[in-house]
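During the first year of the project, the team set up a workflow for recording each protein of interest as an amino acid sequence followed immediately by a discrete structure-token representation. This format lets reviewers and collaborators read both layers of information side by side without switching files. As required by the reporting guidelines, we include two representative entries from the current panel. The first entry is reproduced here exactly as it appears in our internal archive.
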Amino acid sequence: MAKKKSFFRRAWKWFWNLIFSIGIIQWIIAILIAIPIWFVYLTSKIKITNYETFKKYRKKPAIFVFWHGRSMMLSPIIAVGGMRAYAVASKHHDGRIMAKLQRLFGLRPIYGSTSDGGLSVLRGGLHVLSDGRYSMCISPDGPGGPSLRIQDGTMYFAKMSGAPIIPVCYSASRCWFMDNWDKYMVAKPFSRINCIVGEPVFVPRRASDEEFASIREKLENYMVETLHQMDGEFNHPEIQQDVKASAYRRAKRERKHGGQI
């Protein structure tokens, strides 16, 4: 009986993976996701701090970074602000759905990740930045964590291209958090949405290992502190660092089956 259940479970998973790999299905899902995002944006009160920096770099070589769990409401802000940019997207069908969603908000995809297949992403990103007309949007702790940690890829983009890193974060007064590793924030309609655009951070091309690590640490601390401060204003629970997607899924399975974390 157990083997039969396992077989049907694998067959069911294979079926839905096949369905979600179809391009037209991905577009339909992307549109269905985009509609409520726009509804939330249009019914909410949006406040953007330091919008001048966003306007200055929205059509220039720059690397806009945001935590993986805080991307939802940045999409319409980017679209309304007229940003010309590329975003890193996973090659998995989930990532391709998200890439199509981002296309609906004006972002073009570079497939890969800063941790898996990072070399091709680095090449593609440097090509985009060297064009002189586009920015890049990256989640430095994606796609699988550890949460609220900046991976090397983002820093190398800045070091090798000379483009500034610009941290961005938002929080919403009315929201719920998904039960996943990054505690993805889903904003609700009629919210107060605060967005903070940080000052540009440059990584010198000849930066030593110590200087490179120092810049990353300062940027990471700023982004974490900003997130916690913004969430604290709305009395949201504090998002934890160093949570990995694989470990979080394993812990959920153990809880479900009565195991210990």
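The second entry, processed by the same pipeline in the following quarter, appears below.
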Amino acid sequence: MNQQAPRLRWRRPVAAILPDRARTMRRMATGLLVAMAALYLVARHFMDSHPVWSWVLAFAEAGMVGGLADWFAVTALFRHPLGLPIPHTAIIPENKDRIAETMAQFLRENFLTPQVVARRLANMNLAAAAGDWLADPAKGGSTRLRDGAAELLAQVLESLDPERLGNQVRSGLFRQLEKLEVSPLLGQMLRTMIADRRHLPVMDSLIRWTGLTLEDNEELIRDLIHRRANAVLRWTGLDERLATSVIDGLYKLLAEVIVDPDHPLRGKIEEGLAKLTDDLQHDEELRGKVERMKRELIANPAVSNWWQGVWERLRGAMLGRLRRPAGEGSGQLGEALAELGRHLRDDPALQHQINRFARRTLVGVAVRYGDQIVRLVSETVKRWDAQTVTGRIEGAVGRDLQFIRINGTLVGGLVGVLIHAIDQLL
């Protein structure tokens, strides 16, 4: 029933949708006009009994004329007085389309031009206001925003098919990955790592991993040397000594490389990395190989299955965090929003950047979509029926219009007294 009430509201008579205060003022204005008419009749009846009644008659007569004139003017704005098709009455219903065009043009010229938008936003610090709203717990901004966003996101995640959503996310990621040429990006990343010497810890870890791998596979290396050695070496037992020497030499080499940052092997590795960096960016053959590997990886069903498992874990974790009671698991999001608010509130440089971006964005919206916005306003008003337009405008300004009737009645009466005084003096 509550959802139908707003839809049925505009089917009621216009008088029923006017605000209570407007209806009260209309009754007062009409009552004052009736009172003037009654006073006029009383003054006419007693006019010969005392001279003061002539003054009362002048006041009532002129007030009645003023009240009737203003009643006609106010009524003519919205409907035909007494239902008579008098020319130039029912002005608003008869000119609804022209009013819509005028409203749209006024909105376009005074609110949606780039100059007006830029001027109105010039002295507004939107970033500081948003920061203060997020940072101040008393305002509840971060709490409301956090709780509302969490509830909305949780409902969206629960309402969508998990498998289909996961496939759509995967497809979107893979489409973007297909458009991206990976090889130059990898080369630039590797070059940056080498320039910042961030590849050294990776190199040290790789050398230590090589040592551990060698230790775990000593027997395999010994067996390999034993099988490759000729019969003489195996008969004399030199194959075992040879295997031990090889393994000990490898251990010694790895230890020297780890200890000595200027070891020649490190230089060879860095030369290889530098060449790889250059080839990833400029070698067409290597770039083609990397792209083929990328496409094969994307098309591999195992990758799709792996992603689906990752997506389910991500979705479950997000729902679990979003569905926790307020203050239990959502504190990180609230604190992040509060921290963002403090930065916005206290950092003038950041405020300047965000405010400038907001101004440019809104000015751009005014330039690109201003005509569509005013067209929407115009077409919306044109689609309203005449009764709806009349009811909404009368409901908005009806109280002030009834004051015009009251003032017209009283001012008319005072003017009548003034004219009667001049007549008596002359």
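For the second entry, the following points were noted during internal review. The first helix runs from residue 5 to 9. The chain has 21 helices and no strands. Both points are flagged for discussion at the upcoming steering committee meeting.
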